[in-house]
Design goal:
It is a single chain. By secondary structure, this protein is of the alpha+beta class. It is about 50% helix and about 15% strand. Among the domains are: about 170 residues, PAS domain (Beta-Lactamase, 2-Layer Sandwich); about 80 residues, no CATH class; about 150 residues, Alpha-Beta Plaits (2-Layer Sandwich). A hairpin with a 6-residue loop joins β7 and β8. α13 packs across α14. The longest helix is centred in the N-terminal third of the chain and has 77 residues.
Length: about 650
Amino acid sequence: MDNTTAEKTGLVPFHTRHNLLMLALLFTVFLAFCFLLVQNFRVNNKTEQQVLQNHFSERAKSIDGFLGNIRSQVRTLQLSAEADLASRARHRVQPAPLAFNELSENLEGNYFHLDDFRPLLTEEMVGNLTGTGSIQQRSPDFYREMHMALDLNHRFHAIAENFTDLAWVYYLSKNDFINVYPWVPTTDFRYHPRLKEHDFYQLGLPTQNPARQIFWTQAYLDEYGKGLMATCSAPVYDGKRFLGIVAIDLTIDFFCSLVRDFEADNGSMLLINKEQQVLAHPTLINSASTAIPTLQEALPDELQEVGTNLESLPAWQLSKLGSWSVLRAPLKNAPWQVVFFQQRPSLAQAFVAQLGGGALTALLVLLGMICTMAFLNHWHIIWPSEQLLHFIDALDRRKTPLVDSRIPAMWRPRFTNIENIFRNNQALAEESRQQIEILDRRVKERTIELERLNSAFREEIEERSKAEGALRLVNQKLQELSLVDGLTGIPNYRKFDEYLGFCWKQMSREQTPISIIMCDVNYFKQYNDTYGHQAGDRCLQEIAQAIQASLQRPSDLVARYGGEEFIILLPGTDHTGAKRVATSIQQTIANLEIPHSGSLADSCVRFSLGMATSIPAHGGSPESLLEAADQSLFRAKETGRSRVIALPVQR
């Protein structure tokens, strides 16, 4: 039979199937490549948007954090001023600040100032306190307020060192004076009544700010040459009486520096207040500006509607409006918002910019490689493989196959090897069949023998299991006997020691007390001498059973400590409870009325008892508790016997 016969049996030619698969593969690769290009564009675009949103959030939170620090400093000044006023009101006799004695008056100008301070004072230590009128013959409250204003100088200095970009920090009084830092001579700046017309003072008045809240002003032009600025201010009260305000001024230049270096292509970040004033913009405004732009002036024409309805945009999320992307972040520490807008490129521009001409080149190279590989793969692999499959099929049906002369030379050894393998496998299969029959007989014989041995082994295991069970019972009995006193039948000291260690750990976890009572039969040697050792043994047995019966809780334990001594462990029992148990045991022994004519203290057998209580969680150890109980017993016997003594546990 030849290869044509194999095809007639229904074997599908490999080359036809391969060609269909290659076309499907080519089309699939092309679609996959296009899909990956689009997907890559979407992922990159989404990543860029997320990165932009993250950078915006970080910058907005950084700005908010800085404003929060400024707000905290103003709050600190407010609290310090009011605390100083309260302290000087309670303690009228207090030394005046050093700078107070350096104040001078200008009689011609009718004002006072701190221009002529002397060492030990320096410009870094003081601001210039200036005001109208005279500082002579003023009320005590006026001087108290001036002292407070001068005491703020060290805080002004600290704030200026920590915030190098601030313009001014000052206290402005309703009593017509101001302490402003850093120090400037009165030729450059001094108090003028129009200062109280500004928002940083007016918004602090009780009528405008009854809750005494910290507030931010609108942007305004500094009258003394530092350009546009905004102020964080807070009112200062002496009890219920408004005195003035503390404030920190920040220039528009500084606000602009917070947004100028925000890196984003074709975008602008700006800071606006609730009045829609632009406080910061990379290029639109600076301290040299004389006019304050509005949000409408800063936005492009396409976003003019956003300026009138900014609150409708979601906060901290990227919004797409036409060809623009907009981000908005309301701040917590000022009634302001950070806004960012950026013009987006068109979809085609963005796609080309991300992919470029390299993507098309890669696609063409990929198609050429697929076609070349398809041709080489068909001629050198698929068609020879198809012929080899027909060859194997013919051998499998025990027919004589023919080898096509067009088959590449590198494939011919495979045909020869496969034919030899088939011949050898047929011989081995026959030999294996015979060997399997022999092995089946041997397995059956061996199985019968193993079943017999297994039966004997199971019987031996059962006998050993019975022996091991009996041995465990004997060991358990021996273990129990090793923990029981042979004479009295109650636990011995070894059992007591194990139980004490267990209870100590448990009470330590629960933070509850544990008590020990040690008992000793009075003059028991004389009892043995008088009545004999057998009577002494019976006496100890009665005492042990009586103590055992008097204990109320399963957790309590009585053990023979040695000789005529007994020891009781009371877990979870405080000193009062232990005292009650000790008294009960003493009465129980007395009720036995065991005669003891040899006793030097009583006519019947009596106990001396020593007790100790400890809370393991508070320190100490089981040994220290035992030592305290033993010392208590010794003290009971030393002080007359037949009594209960409790000594504290030594830590």
